[in-house]
Design brief:
Blueprint (H helix, E strand, L loop, with lengths): L2 H10 L8 E4 L15 H14 L3 E5 L5 H13 L4 E7 L2 H11 L5 E8 L2 H8 L3 H16 L5 E6 L6 H14 L3 E6 L6 H14 L7 E6 L6 H10 L4 E4 L13 H10 L15 H12 L20 H9 L19 E3 L5 H10 L6 H17 L3 E2 H14 L4 E9 L6 E9 L2 E9 L2 H12 L5 E9 L8 E9 L2 E9 L2 H21 L10
Parallel strand pairs: 1-2, 1-8, 2-3, 3-4, 4-5, 5-6, 6-7, 7-8
Antiparallel strand pairs: 9-10, 11-12, 12-13, 14-15, 15-16
Helix pairs in contact: 2-3, 2-11, 3-4, 6-7, 8-9, 14-15, 16-17
């Protein structure tokens, strides 16, 4: 019996009342991290993976924030097979109408509406009296119910809200038809015992509380997001709002992988469970990290590079005798496997397609062909091709499939003698352009050459390189972040030649910047 079969068999014996719904907000709250903006294609890629791994609700975006957000929510709503698709909206009819339009194609749509309830937020952010806020709660939920029966209401900055007023707001939301009540720790201020008491108090005191699902949404400013979320579950909450890798503004959100594995590993102490296929956690972590260019810290719980590494002699000795001496979970339980030599230059299309399917990729005919061509090129350059190489290659190919600007050829002259020069040929909407430029190093020369073909005033706040696998022939994965007129985008590229990967990453960022220029946004609308 496989580990997955054992897990499924174990779950059938669990109490349904202990089931915790996972609400993933990587594509909304996660994207609010400065520099973490994603393209439509990247959002669809992440949403499909979240849907496959068993995420119950995907908060796909904030539809009124921009045309791009609206389009992303709408397209994700169309492709989701299992998950509820939620759109965020402030407590106003225009926001709710926009969210309703965005999720209308979903098999299971949800509108998530919110308003601030703490004294400091009401006074300085909303400039509204408590009575007006209370009226807005009822009106917004009722309006949202006109679009869907699944309405979630959130009290922004709930943990700094006066308890009596919070009870009145929650009661008003329930009476108006909310089916989920979210109690966010918006600024990461609370501690576990305090958050437990807050959730327990609301469930006990508010009329109708037994008819709705209470939800946690905890930020990590004090490093307590996961602990607070689990405390909320212990108090009776049955939905956790979280993100892959804990991505989110400031210090981030509760990390999906941590709350899920805490329940999986410590089922003796935490009787709750989720529907997440934990064996897809590593894949999701790598995808989100690659798309956003936010590296996962080496000692990050569950998905960090060192999470299953053992260097101390005493630890290594124990591991050799029994892995349970220093590992409370197996790497395989989160889908982490040793690099395995799986493909080579003699592998054909059929084998390549089957390998991609095993790895969770389903590509269309054209995308498959492009990926296969790049794989054959890679196999000619590298002595060994590993799973990680294929992941990097395919993710890069999928991210650049719709690009208007593409790298055709690159020649670089570098070394101690100087000057460093680069000659690059770009395909710009079907027309080839070639330029030469010099720079302070080969990467600077490449970027100057690109800029001479595609002029812009963007600033480069991030240039990051890491090796996909070990060895001098490893693929380089490069991330580039550009900022222009308040717009921030991140591009990525992969190749065994670091200079080629750098050119691809820079061009990827320029493509995204062009998309951003074409779409308008009414300013920052951060929430929860």
């Amino acid at each position: 019996m496989t580990s997955k079969e054992k897990s499924n068999k174990s779950r059938t014996r669990r109490n349904d009342a202990d089931r915790v719904v996972i609400f993933d907000t990587t594509l909304r709250d996660g994207e609010q991290s400065p520099g973490a903006s994603m393209t439509l294609g990247e959002k669809l890629q992440i949403a499909e993976l979240l849907d496959q791994m068993g995420v119950d609700i995907i908060e796909a975006g904030f539809p009124i924030a921009s045309n791009g957000d609206f389009e992303a929510v709408s397209e994700i709503a169309k492709i989701a097979k299992n998950a509820v698709i939620a759109g965020l909206a402030r407590a106003g009819n225009k926001d709710i109408d926009r969210a309703g339009d965005a999720v209308k194609h979903a098999r299971r749509p949800r509108i998530h509406t919110f308003i601030s309830t703490s004294p400091v937020h009401m006074k300085y952010k909303l400039q509204m009296e408590p009575g007006a806020v209370l009226d807005a709660v009822s009106a917004s939920v009722r309006h949202a119910r006109g679009y869907t029966d699944d309405v979630e209401w959130s009290a922004e900055d709930a943990t700094r809200t006066e308890h009596d007023f919070l009870c009145r707001c929650v009661e008003a939301a329930i009476k108006a038809g909310a089916t989920t009540i979210n109690i966010p720790d918006t600024v990461g201020y609370t501690v576990p015992d305090e958050y437990y008491d807050l959730i327990a108090m609301l469930i006990e005191k508010v009329p109708g509380a037994g008819d709705v699902v209470f939800s946690t949404h905890c930020h990590n400013d004090l490093g307590l997001a996961v602990a607070n979320s689990l405390a909320g579950v212990r108090a009776g909450a049955r939905q956790i709002e979280c993100t892959i890798n804990g991505l989110g503004e400031r210090a981030g959100n509760a990390a999906l992988e941590e709350v899920v594995m805490a329940m999986n590993v410590r089922s003796d102490a935490i009787p709750n469970w989720t529907g997440i296929n934990a064996e897809m956690i590593t894949r999701a972590s790598k995808l989100v990290s690659g798309v956003t260019a936010f590296p996962v810290q080496y000692n990050k719980a569950i998905v960090g590079k060192n999470a299953f590494a053992h260097e101390a002699g005493i630890h290594q000795d124990g591991m050799l005798k029994n892995t349970q001496t220093y590992e409370i979970m197996t790497p395989e339980s989160i889908g982490l496997k040793e690099s395995s030599l799986v493909m080579g230059k003699h592998s054909g299309r059929h084998a390549f397609r089957e390998k991609l399917s095993e790895m969770g990729y389903e590509l269309g005919k054209n995308a498959l062909e492009d990926a296969f061509v790049r794989f054959k090129d890679l196999a000619d350059k590298k002595k060994h091709v590993y799973d990680e190489d294929i992941e990097a290659l395919v993710d890069d190919e999928m991210a650049s499939a719709d690009d208007h600007i593409k790298v055709v050829a690159l020649t670089v002259i570098a070394g101690t003698g100087g000057p460093q020069k680069a000659t690059i040929t770009l395909d710009v909407e079907g027309t080839h352009h070639t330029r030469e430029a010099s720079g302070d190093g080969p990467v600077d020369a490449i970027f100057n050459a690109i800029k001479s073909i595609v002029p812009h005033e963007a600033r480069l706040p991030l240039y990051q390189v890491h090796a996909v696998t070990e060895g001098t022939d490893a693929q380089a994965e490069v991330s580039v972040r550009l900022e222009e007129a308040g717009k921030t985008v991140t591009g990525r590229g992969a190749d065994t030649d670091t200079m080629v990967a750098s050119a691809r990453a820079y061009v990827s960022a320029l493509n995204k910047l062009q998309v951003k220029r074409e779409k308008t946004a009414p300013g920052s609308m951060l929430a929860s």
